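[scheduler] slot 2 assigned
[scheduler] job type: sequence-to-structure, two independent chains
[scheduler] chain ordering preserved from manifest
[runner] begin chain α
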Amino acid sequence: MAASRRRRGIGAFLALLALFAGGAGYWAWDRWQGFQRDPLAGLEAGDGYVVERGDSFARVLQKLREAGVREGHDLEWQLLARRLGAAGRLHVGEYALAPGMSARDVLINMRDGRVVRHRFTLVEGWNIRELRAALRATERLRPDSAGLDDAALMAELGHAGVHPEGRFLPETYFYTRGDSDLDLLRRANQALERALDEAWAARAEDLPLRSREEALVLASIVEKETGIAEERPLIAGVFVRRLRLGMRLQTDPTVIYGLGEAFDGNIRRADLQADTPYNTYTRDGLPPTPIAMPGVAALRAATRPAEGDALYFVAVGDGSGRHVFSRTYAEHNAAVREYVRRYRERFPR
C-alpha cells in the first residue's frame, strides 16, 4: 500500500512538472511570436538610425536602443535575424523607424536595404549659383563639389570647357544619405542632355537656330520670362520671329544675368544701356550661354514655338504673371501704359 501511494505521488508530481513545463514553453513561444509581430512601442514619425560600414550586429542593436527601441532581449533580436536571413547581411544606409513597425519589419528593411530616400528638387529657372548654394545646404549629400570652381566641376562631370549654366535639368532627384552631390549633378546633366536631344530632334522646320546649343539658350530665356505653362510657346514664338527679322531680343532676364551678383533686384535704364555679352538690348542675336536651367516644357517651346505675328509682350500687371502680346509697337506701348496703370493701383506710393 505504501509503495502504491509513493508511485501515485511520484506520478502526480511528474504530471504537475510536465504541466508546468508545458505552460512555460507556451509562455515562451507566445512571447517569441509577439516579439516578432507586435508593433514596437514608442516609435514616432521621424525616428531613425544609420547603419555605417563596419557596424556589427551588436552595434546596430545599440543604435536601435538609442533610437528608442526597448523591446526584446539581444538574443531574441539575434535569433530573429538568423531566422530572416538578416544576420551578416545588413545594408549600409539610413533607416526610418515609424509607428506600427515590428522587430520583423526593422530587420527585413535592413536585410533588403530599404534605406530612406531623400528628395532634391532642382527648380526651373535656377542659375548655377542658386543650384550650387542649394546643394551646399543639403546636409545628407556628400559635398564633393564644394572645393571645385565651375570649370573644374564641369571637367569632373566629363564636360571640360563647357559653361555650366543651363546644363542640369530641373526635376526632383532621389538620393540616399552619403551619396555624392557629384552623382546627383551627373544625373541631372544626363537628364538635360536627353531632354535637349529629344526636343531638338522634334524641332519645327525653318527655326532660326543653328544648333541644339542655341535652342538651349533660347529655352533658358523663355524659362525666365514666364512661369505660365501655356505662355511658353507664345513667348518663344515672339523671340523666334525677332530672330528671323534681325530684331534684337531686348529681354530683361539676359541683362540681369549679365549683371551677376551686382544685380540688386531693380533693373534701371542705365543697366539696359550698359553693354555686356548678355545685354540683348545692345547686342544682336542670342547671348553666348544659357542664363538659367530650363525645364522640359521650355525646351519644347523653344524648338516648337507657337505660330503667330506678335513681336512684343508685357506683363498684364494684375499679379497673375500673365502677359499681353502685341503685333505692333503702338499696340505694345498701349499695353505698357495699361501695365503701369495697374501696377500703380496695386502698389500706390
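[runner] end chain α
[runner] begin chain β
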Amino acid sequence: MTPRAILTDIEGTTSSIAFVHEVLFPYSRARLADYVAQRAADPGVAAILDQVRAEAGAPLDLAGCTALLTEWHDADRKIAPLKSLQGLIWAEGYAAGELQGHVYADAVEGLRRWHARGIALHVYSSGSVAAQKLIFGHTAYGDLTPLFSGYFDTAVGGKKEAGSYAAIARAIGVAPAEILFLSDVEAELAAAAAAGLGVTLLARDGLPAASPYPVAESFDTILPAEAIA
C-alpha cells in the first residue's frame, strides 16, 4: 500500500550525522558566548534566557545563563532554549553563506519523487523546527522546503515515545497505518510502530546483521517510481 504521508528523520536518514556533529555543532559552540553577550537585549534572545532561568529554577545572571547553555551544548542536551539559540546562530551562518545544509542526493531524489506522486512529506527531528527548515532551505540542490507539508520537533514529544507519533498522526490528519516513518534509530522505529505507523530503517553504513524492521541503504529502494501507483 502506498502511504498517504511520509515522516522522515534527518540525522542519518536524509542527512549525514557528521554534518550535524562536525559542522553545525562546532559552528554554534564557537559563537555561543559572543552571540548571547551581543544580543542579550534582543527580544528573541531575552526570551531564550528567561527559558534558561526557568529550566534552572534560579535567577541566573547573563554569565550564569551562558555557562549553562554552554554546558547543555557540550552535553548535546535536547532542550528547547538551547535548540532555539542554536537555530538563531545557524540562521546567521546560512544567511552569510558560511553553512550549507547537507542532504544526500538519493534523499533529494526520493523526496521529489514522492512529492510528485502526491504523498505528503513531513519531518520529525530532535533539532528545532527552525533548524530543520534551515537545513532543507539551504542545500546544494536549492531550497527543498516546498516539498514538505509540515515539521515536528520534540515539542510534540520524545522520538522514542509512541505517543509522539500518535500526536503527529492526529496533527496531520492521517491514520497512523497510512504513514511511513523513516529513521536510522531502531528505538524510534519501535515507538512509531507501536503507534501503528509503517516504518523503514535507514542503514547508510551497511546492512545490520538483523533487524525486525524493513531496511534500506538509501531512499532509492523506498517506494521507487515503478512501485507507486
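[runner] end chain β
[qc] chain β: The chain has a mean pLDDT of 94.
[scheduler] slot 2 released
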